[in-house]
């Protein structure tokens, strides 16, 4: 019997790796259930304070706060399964892709198991990207 998987791949190229300083982000969606249309959107900067986010995928609940910046994303065209913002770049040129189907790799899950109702692929970009201005701050000043 053939095992079906949804295994997505992303490619991020930073501005220091391109000749013209462009940031490039690319992603494919290898889903066993066929076409899943996406939309390209630009989300304006806004104050997230008081927003109550609930994931349609796993019930994750987050009380959001803080001023968010403008960012782009490619959410699902049909939102009945949640946002799934896939990838984006914010106004500070921070790029992120967050739907690479980590749950299909047993070796990764053995080292870092998923929390049942923790932050997952459907929510990562929305909860993180608009609130990042300098990724160095997130990683305690590490410069790799």
Describe the structure.
This protein is an alpha+beta fold and 144 residues long. It has one domain. Helix content is 10%, strand content 22%. It contains three helices and ten strands; from the N terminus they run E-E-E-E-E-E-E-E-E-E-H-H-H. The radius of gyration is 16 Å and the shape is globular. The mean pLDDT is 81.
Structural class: alpha+beta
Give the beta-strand count.
10
The proportion of residues in beta strands is 15-25%
How many structural domains are formed by the residues? 1
**C-alpha termini separation:** 44 Å
Major beta-sheet overview = 2 strands, antiparallel
* Mean pLDDT level: 81
Q: What count of helical segments does DSSP give?
A: 3
Q: What spatial order of strands do you see in the largest sheet?
A: 1-2
Instruction: Name the poorly predicted regions.
Output: none
Shape: globular
Specify the helix fraction band: 10-25%
Helix and strand element order: EEEEEEEEEEHHH
Radius of gyration: 16 Å
Could you outline the blueprint of secondary structure elements for this entry?
Blueprint: E1 9-13, E2 24-28, E3 41-43, E4 46-47, E5 52-54, E6 61-63, E7 67-68, E8 71-73, E9 87-89, E10 95-97, H1 106-111, H2 124-128, H3 135-138
Antiparallel strand pairs: 1-2, 3-8, 4-7, 5-6, 9-10
């Amino acid at each position: 019997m053939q095992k079906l998987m949804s295994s997505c791949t992303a490619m991020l190229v930073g501005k220091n790796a391109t000749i013209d300083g462009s940031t490039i982000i690319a992603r494919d969606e290898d889903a066993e259930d066929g076409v899943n249309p996406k939309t390209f959107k630009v989300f304006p900067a806004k104050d997230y304070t008081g927003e109550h986010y609930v994931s349609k995928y796993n019930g994750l609940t987050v009380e959001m706060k803080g001023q968010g910046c403008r960012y782009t994303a490619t959410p699902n065209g049909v939102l009945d399964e949640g946002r799934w913002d896939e990838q984006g770049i914010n106004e500070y040129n921070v790029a992120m892709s967050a739907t690479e189907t980590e749950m299909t790799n047993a070796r990764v899950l053995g080292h870092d198991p998923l929390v049942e109702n923790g932050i997952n692929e459907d929510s990562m970009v929305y909860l993180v990207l608009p609130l990042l201005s300098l990724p160095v701050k997130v990683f305690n000043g590490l410069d790799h």
